[in-house]
TrEMBL record:
Transmembrane segments: none annotated. Pfam families: ALO (PF04030), FAD_binding_4 (PF01565). This is D-arabinono-1,4-lactone oxidase. Residues 24-195 form the FAD-binding PCMH-type domain.
Amino acid sequence: MADSVSGTTSSIVRGVEWSNWAGTESSRLARVATPRSEVEVVDEIRRAARKGLRVKAIGAGHSFTGAAVTDGLQLRLGALTGVTSIDSTRGEATVRAGTPLHVLSEELAAFGHALPNLGDIDRQSLAGATATGTHGTGLRLPGLSAGVRALRIVLADGSVVDCSRTREPDLFQAARLGLGALGVVTEITLGVVPAFLLHASERPERLSEVLAHAAASAEANDHFEFYWFPHTDRALTKRTNRVPEGTPRRPLRAWRERLDDDLLSNRVFELTNRVATRVPRSTRGINAVAARALSSRQYTDSSHRVFVTAREVRFVESEWAFPRAALGDVLQELREWIDTHDERISFPVECRVAAADDVWLSTAYEQESCYVAVHRYHRQPRGAYFDAFEAIAVNHRGRPHWGKLHTRDADYLRSVYPRFDDFVAVRDRVDPERRFANPYLDRVLGA
């Protein structure tokens, strides 16, 4: 159905059940709107205020936390998509906030540009990815939020504010990674670079050898990451580097891509996780086989095709950031816990690194960071695994990824984020009535 709102038309639905991608959060919504313009976003927020409804914007629903949960008005930004302008001289593109990252990459490529870095999943919307601190890997490259140069945001009173380092600088610093707590971002200007190719080298290695050389590998490569298979001493490493201009593309052969990424990493992985769920004692053997099934490979392709990996198997995840030097200790403590407890872990543990940045709520704020992420197949109980990992993380003064599972509250987060209170002060100013609040934000920021 459609409601006429101040001369605009916004697609409206009422009384809808919603759940996120992983199935970790769900709610019944009083109202759903799919605005097609910033004007419609403004009208919907003002209407929600008159009705006393809380408001949350939603992209792909890829956060594992309750960051986007509401029982009020859900604004689905899927119609606010596309690149609106590119300034090659300044190296920046202005993009509508609901644009999925995979769509953004393709649109930028059509104009000879690219994002300098990406995570390994690109289903998220741009606004959702920046709001929760999505990052890739690379010791000289920060996360997506650090690349934001300006943004437009609709506040709780319906006003639209342009922000940058020189215009509303405090609001800009907060809203670059705003958790959806400050308003609804409608447009983002971010840094881009000329399109480039990456050469990827993937190979299995022993975990002990990977950890012995992790610091050197991070420093020697543009991007370095690895996946450790619990219950084994095996890891799959990925080293990725830019190639000189003029280097030809040499993508994976179609059969190899289907074998590795479609069959082994998705279809067979789904099957083995189902087996491990029904017969937990089979997990060790499955991991031992899986750790050797993906053999060495090399390829050169467009950057966004190398950064991203198809992820069709559903999972739940917890990821924490630490000072880079803590990687070995954190992983060894996690390994010791797994080896001494009756838990069967069928998903690899993912490890990455990132540059320091100046984004107030970034997990890499003023520190070169390593990231350790643990996963569970979505059909499996989490058991004590996530709790044990969180205890290790807290002991190392880790910072939890805002879009992934954790139980920390405002008191802890204030202790690890030097600009936490500055963020809260901006929130108090622009949303004193907590129009954009929800239980997750009440916990992590305070009510």
